Every structure is written in structure tokens, then in C-alpha cells.
Amino acid sequence: MKAVVYHGIGDIRLDSVPDPTIEHPTDAVVRITASAICGTDLHFVRGTVPGMKPGTVMGHEGVGVVEEVGSAVRNFRPGDRVLLSAVLGCGSCAYCRAGYFAQCDAINPNGSRATTAFYGAPAETGPFDGVQAEYTRVPYAHTNLVHLPDEITDAQALPLADVYPTGWFGAVIAEVSDGDVVAVWGCGPVGQFAILSSFQRGAGRVIAVDGHPDRLERARTLGAEVIDFNAVDPVAQILEMTRGIGPDRAIDAVGVDAESPKEGPAADRARRDDERHREELAEIAPRARPTEGHWLPGDAPTQAHWWAVESLAKAGTLGIVGVYPPSDRFFPIGRAMNRNLTVKMGNGDHPRYIPRLLDLVKTGAVDPEKVLTRHEPLRDVLGAYQEFDHRSPGWLKVALDPAR
Ligand SMILES: NC(=O)c1ccc[n+]([C@@H]2O[C@H](COP(=O)([O-])OP(=O)(O)OC[C@H]3O[C@@H](n4cnc5c(N)ncnc54)[C@H](O)[C@@H]3O)[C@@H](O)[C@H]2O)c1
Ligand SMILES: [Zn+2]
Ligand SMILES: [Zn+2]
């Protein structure tokens, strides 16, 4: 089959690889009908989240049709339309039972103390071959597949694999509730769903920050008050908009590839931090390097954290869903501690939230498809990765069709 294969930092290829097979009785094999590219995939190719094993199939967002099931799978059979949860759990251990699927005790072959298991990710996450492919093996299929009703299209379902549950999880861990003023840092696909989810959880105001006008414009259509960090100082602007109090809640939807402002009043202040950011990046991701203008790491790994912490109201809450590798040890803890902030973070417990979000989509209350601004054939995947990597206008989120 055709699959996007990781070969090294800055080197992914569309290769022919063997079809996956049932390896355990709880497995299913799914024929993928749509997959997508996530900001997390960019961290891997840029090398800012290290540890990918060459040969791993990329991608963790997928929709498809069950091709084959193992003997222990009792809730799916060949022909069923399914959504694949990006985050994987066993459904039986104490963590899964408590809803902490991202910290499942059983599914990661590296052991119970190992990190979140998900497809197409570094060796320490499994690794499990990913879904930017024609077929995928799904472990513990009873928990990691979700039935899709006929009335939900692939494009409507695809954001439910990862970016919507992540945005929702961000609003949960940031403790967003009725009337809150929420700052969402980053308006990529995850940020867009963090904005939507914050409103769904009762936020009074959502202030959204990014440096890309097309992404901010989308955030504005969701009802967010938008701030371009290349035009104004986002911290000063947020304080002005909130009577100097700051937002109650903040969600980091940026991750380790955070950028510093390149123009505007915030750029001067950021330039003074250039040296520190360079040192941080060198320590966090020593092997990250751009190739031919692509896969450029963000130049300021802690930028979003500093801004979020500086602008939050006293005793406010920060929810971090942006991804940072284990080598990152630079969070501004002193600033946060002295203002009694609560900081929660992690990978989303997707199987816990997907069913209720799918229900919202079914009712028509949410049309998540709008985030998918590009639909490309899998054969054009490398070009699509590069456009998404460059955050080219109009390339907010790419859906990939293996059949085209
Ligand atoms: N925790 C989870 O379970 C989970 C799941 C999916 C994705 N993620 C992570 O969420 C993050 C966002 O994912 P995405 O797909 O939306 O990626 P993305 O790269 O498309 O979005 C990141 C956005 O942040 C903006 N940005 C950069 N620097 C900024 C700054 N200093 N302040 C504000 N905005 C800034 C960028 O312009 C971009 O629009 C990534 O780190 C990804 O790995 C986490
Ligand atoms: Zn993702
Ligand atoms: Zn488990």
C-alpha cells in the first residue's frame, strides 16, 4: 500500500509498504477513506519533537471502513464506517476507566510508565504505524474505533479524530466555565476548536492570538476577539481589553514551534529574548534544522507560555495542549507560582470526549468540516505538508484522500 513514511528530520516520503495485518485478537484493520495532517506531525518532521523511528508511517487522524477484525473484537465487523481516535487506550486499565485514556497503563509496548500512545509518533509512544496510508492497524479496536452514522460525512468526522477533542480537552483543563474570559493562544486547527469549545462551555469572551491574518479571520467568524501579535503587543492589548485584570483562563494551542513577533511593538521586546530563545531551542531540539527553506523550527519555544502567564488574571488557569517534548524544561514557573496560577496540561483523553462531540455534530450544532480548508489526494501529500508547514494562507487544515 501507499503510505507517508518518516525517514529522518526533514525527510518524509510517499512509499510503498506492506499492508498491515491483524497482530492481536483485539486489533482491527481499517481501510482509510480520509486522513489529515496535524501540527504535531510538523513538530516530528521539523525535529522539534524528537525520537521518531525511521520507517514509521505518519499521521494520527483518520476515518475509514473496517476491513478485518481480530477474534476478540465484538462491537465492529467488516464494512462498518469508523472514526479512529488519535489517542489510544486499552479501555480496561484503571487509567482508562477513570477517563485518562492518554495515560493508559496497558497499550504502550514501552511499558506502563511510558508516555501517551498514538499513531505515527516517536518510538516512546509505541510506535504505532499511522493513518496517512491506505490501511491502518488499530490496536484495542473496541475502544479506539467509533461507529460513524451514515449521515455524518468523512469530512465532518475527520476533525473528531483529534483536533476537536483536543480543543475541547484544552477548555476542560483550562477550567473554562460560565462567563469566563478566555485567551486562546494559537489559531491553527486546534486553536479554532479551543475557541469553539470555550464558547460551548460557557465562556463570556474569547480572545484569540496568532500572527497569521487568515487564521485570525477564521477565529473571528467563531466569535473570538482577535489579536495579531505582529501588529500589537498581545499582552498589553489583552490587559487593555480586560480592565487590566487579564483573562480568567488561557489555552496554549501553539506548542514547541512557537514564533516570536517579527514586526510591531512586541517585536522589540522579543528581540531582547532572542539569545535565550536560541539557547532553549538548541537544548530542546539540537537536531532540528531546516532543509531548503522547509521544516523551519519555531524560533521562540517559550513565547506563548510567557505571554499566557504574563497576561492571565491572578489565580487564573492555563491549559496547555500545545505539544512540548520531554527535553523542554523552560516553563516560566516563577511567574506562574507568584500569581497563584493553576497550570494543567497533557495529551487529550480523546476516547472520553469523542462520543459527545460526535453527538453535537449529528445535531447540526457544530459543523467541524469548515476547518478543512484543503482536500488533496494522498499522492500530493508532500506538497500539502510543505504548504501546511509554511502556514500558507488557505492551508489551515489538509484532508488527504487515499483513493484519489
Ligand atoms: N495535546 C494534544 O492532545 C494535542 C493534539 C493535537 C495537537 N496538539 C498540538 O497542538 C498544537 C497546535 O496544533 P495545530 O494543528 O493547530 O498546529 P499549527 O501549527 O497549525 O498551529 C499553531 C498556531 O500557533 C500560531 N503561533 C505560533 N507562535 C505563536 C505565538 N507566539 N503566539 C500565538 N500563536 C502562535 C501559529 O501561527 C499557528 O497558527 C501543536 O503543538 C500540536 O502538536 C496537541
Ligand atoms: Zn494531532
Ligand atoms: Zn488503558
TrEMBL record:
InterPro entries, from UniProt? ADH-like_C, ADH-like_N, ADH_Zn_CS, GroES-like_sf, NAD(P)-bd_dom_sf
UniProt keyword annotations, A-Z: Metal-binding, Oxidoreductase, Zinc
GO MF, one annotated term? zinc ion binding
Q: Which cofactor does it need?
A: Zn(2+)
Annotated Alcohol dehydrogenase-like C-terminal domain residues: 189-257
UniProt KW Nucleotide-binding keyword? no
According to the entry, every stretch annotated as the Alcohol dehydrogenase-like N-terminal domain falls at 25-150
- Note down the stretches annotated as region Disordered: 257-278
Bias-annotated ranges (Basic and acidic residues): 259-278
Q: What family is it from?
A: Belongs to the zinc-containing alcohol dehydrogenase family.
Name of this chain's protein: Glutathione-dependent formaldehyde dehydrogenase
Give the originating organism: Streptomyces radicis
The organism's lineage is: Bacteria, Bacillati, Actinomycetota, Actinomycetes, Kitasatosporales
